[in-house]
Specification:
There is one protein chain. 31% of the residues lie in helices and 23% in strands. With 241 residues, the protein is of the alpha/beta class. It has a single domain, classed as Purple Acid Phosphatase, chain A, domain 2. It has a 6-stranded mixed sheet with strand order 3-4-5-9-6-7. The longest helix is centred in the middle third of the chain and has 13 residues.
């Protein structure tokens, strides 16, 4: 079984289309999305429609949660709140209905999929957690791997039943151990926040027990121009470069 995991598209169709084109060349059976397909970027409606068109299962991100529960908007800083309000106004009823039916977590192929932190948090950032909280999460986790997004940064946390080890993976394949458990942050398709501004996603091969981090170039200036033309905050565009 080979499947792709994507996260944090954030309305960046230039990046999303480049990633989908790369996925189509990789012989994967399925694609799973970790949420936050909307917000920040200029084409949130198109991003949600593409998830629907391709029948890609997605969990709720914190940005989608604001669509489901408008009070959730109060958790965002003023700039993000303003741009998310613009985004929400652009969504069709069909897209809103799709978002409202997103689960807070999914389990497939002995893997858990959640936006923030296991078992089902859309808001907790991986970097906010203590070693004790990580150990507790791992001990309660029945699945081999939990895939998360939210931070927009690649990260792998490994648990052998006692010790916790965390590291930032680079490009290429990583061998995984079936006797250990992992929390893997797959990075962001639409707004990476690490030193490499390529769009990122992951391919898991359950038979070979490998995770491959894919770094995909795309037309960043096109995405930047669309953000500025839409009148969204310039900082959203600057983060892409």
């Amino acid at each position: 079984m080979r499947f792709a995991v994507i996260s944090d598209i954030h309305g960046n169709m230039d990046a999303f289309e480049a990633v989908l084109a790369d996925i189509d060349r990789q012989s994967v059976s399925d694609i799973y999305c970790l949420g936050d397909s909307i917000g920040y970027g200029a084409e949130s409606e198109k991003a949600v429609q593409e998830l629907m068109r391709r029948d890609i299962p997605s969990v709720l991100g914190n940005h989608e949660m604001a669509v489901v529960d408008p009070e959730h908007l109060e958790l965002f800083n003023p700039v993000a709140r303003m741009s998310l309000s613009v985004c929400m106004a652009s969504l069709s009823e069909q897209s809103k209905n799709f978002i409202e039916n997103m689960p807070q977590f999914m389990v497939y192929h002995n893997c858990r999929f959640v936006h923030g932190f296991p078992p089902d948090s859309v808001d907790i950032y991986l970097f906010q957690t203590t070693d004790d909280e990580l150990s507790d999460a791992f001990m309660k986790m029945r699945e081999w791997i939990c895939f998360v997004g939210h931070t927009h940064e690649l990260n792998i946390i490994e648990y052998d039943g006692g010790a916790i080890e965390a590291w930032v993976p680079g490009r290429g394949k990583i061998s995984l151990d079936k006797d250990r458990k992992y929390i893997i942050n797959v990075g962001s398709v639409g707004q990476p926040r690490d030193p490499d501004n390529n769009a990122k996603y992951l391919i898991l091969d359950t038979r070979r027990q490998t995770a491959e981090l894919r770094f995909v170039p795309y037309d960043i200036e096109s995405a930047v121009e669309k953000i500025l033309e839409a009148g969204l905050p310039r900082g959203h565009a600057g983060r892409l470069r």
